[in-house]
Amino acid sequence: MSKSESKNSGSNILLLMSGSIACSKASSLVSAWTKHGSEVRVACTRSVAEFIGHAELADLGARMVFDNVFTPGHEMEHISLGKWADIIIAAPATSNLINKLSAGIADDAVSTVWQAAYGRGIPMVIVPAMNTRMWRYPATRESVRRLKRWGIHVLPVGKGQLACGEHGEGRMLEPAEILETVERLLAFDQKKTGKRVLVTAGGTRETIDSVRYIGNMSSGRTAARLTEELIAAGHELTWLGAEDAIRPASVERMVSYYSFADLEARLRELLGSGIYDVVIHAAAVSDFSLASIETSRGDVLENLRGKLSSESDLLLRLKKNPKLLNQLKSWSRNPSLMVIGFKLTDTDDLQQRIAAVRKQLDHPQIDAVVHNDLSEIGHEAHPFQLYAPMREPVHCADGEALAKTINKLMETAP
Ligand SMILES: Cc1cc2nc3c(=O)[nH]c(=O)nc-3n(C[C@H](O)[C@H](O)[C@H](O)COP(=O)(O)O)c2cc1C
Fold it and tell me: Which residues are within 8 A (CB) of 209 and not within 5 positions of it... i.e. 6 or more apart?
């Protein structure tokens, strides 16, 4: 049976269990997946044995249960299980496990398998189960945020009667909801296009002193939207964003930058080391960096650490930055890199808007330009126009429509 024929059919599913009263609920997942034709293997923390036995898991259809990294004859299982799996689901995930995974601790079978599998590009899912206060504990909140930032799917918790007798949030999702999520993630995985896209986001900040900077108003909203939509279309995304930019909900790789120089360095590194097919350069890059600061008496201030005095006038000398957009292809290991830039105009005159876009599009290193006029910006959703050589401009009503148009354009990328 091929993978696309039925629900999860033919998939290798690795279930990681940790010590919760929800273990028996999670174990019903094993038989459901097995019935659908998947092979299920299970790795357990030691405390799982207090809730459910190996024999029970094997009866449900688990081909193998792994709970000790040092089992003779299975010394490499902590690596091979992650390589074997098409998807990894930690269910139930205790607060202990969630906090360990976010802290990088690998001291048992489950946390070691998890770490060794991360970065393989397979979906990794966490299904939390715990008491309400454990769920709200600051370390747990922070760990969930971190894990999500690393592209891990942390599912929500349910609300209701808890095993401890209390009422509140922290219940593990029902097996049917977990099965549905896994099915969706596996279906999505099969639709992966293999195209690698780098999206830049947010605005640069040029430091004046330790507390001041020159910045711009870019929020990163459009880039976050594009990133999410292009992930949903099956592409592999890297988000390179300003530290304060709006972040996409889930992305495999996130890299942050601060200043123009920092962004340039990150772009050179990423394009030079990985093979990207497309760059969508939505970041608002400062046209100027600070060259020097002079006092009103003409003295050039050397040490810009700490806080500059506000007692007298200062002269900030700015130097023009080169256009990063025009250099991306030359930094790329992939000579066929598709470069999509953004052009913001500030004029009512349509001809002037088109001329500004054409000027950017005429550059040999740029393949397409997304245009906005300042008058259109400021609302949650605003329109865009996408220009590419030899094509009619495409009007896109919002970020979602823009992502669809870019996705179509990417189909033409080699
Ligand atoms: C009856 C019982 C139920 C428990 N249920 C949970 C739970 O649902 N979530 C949780 O985070 N911890 C729960 N615990 C506590 C964990 O089992 C404990 O923190 C353990 O050290 C977790 O280890 P592990 O993450 O390595 O499995 C429970 C403990 C007991 C005795």
Answer: 304, 305, 306, 307, 308
Please, what is the Cα angle at 124 between 118 and 127, to 5 degrees? 135
Catalytic residues: 164
Q: What domains does the chain contain, in order, with CATH numbers? A: 12-190 (3.40.50.1950), 196-286+322-410 (3.40.50.10300)
What is the Å distance from ligand 1's center to 110 Cα? 14
| pTM summary value | 0.63
pLDDT category of residue 103 using cuts at 50, 70 and 90: very high
Query: Torsion-angle region of residue 84: left (phi > 0), alpha (psi -120 to 50) or beta?
Result: alpha
CA of 369 to the centre of ligand 1 (A): 53
Residue 42: C-alpha distances to residues 53, 123, 178 (Å): 12, 16, 16
214 backbone dihedrals φ, ψ, rounded to 5°: -105, 125
User: Looking at ligand 1, which residue's alpha carbon is closest to its atom 18?
Assistant: 19
Burial 353-388 (b: 16+ CB within 10 A, else e): bbebbeebbeeeebbbbbbbbeeeeeeeebbbbbbb
pLDDT digits (tens, 9 = 90+) for 358-378: 999 999 999 999 999 999 887
Atom index in ligand 1 nearest the CA of residue 130 equals 9
pLDDT digits (tens, 9 = 90+) for 309-365: 888 899 999 999 999 999 999 999 998 999 999 999 999 999 999 999 999 999 999
| Contact of 321 with 285, CB cutoff 8 Å | yes
Q: Are 245 and 216 in contact (CB under 8 A)?
A: no
Q: Read off the tokens for 333.
A: 């290991």
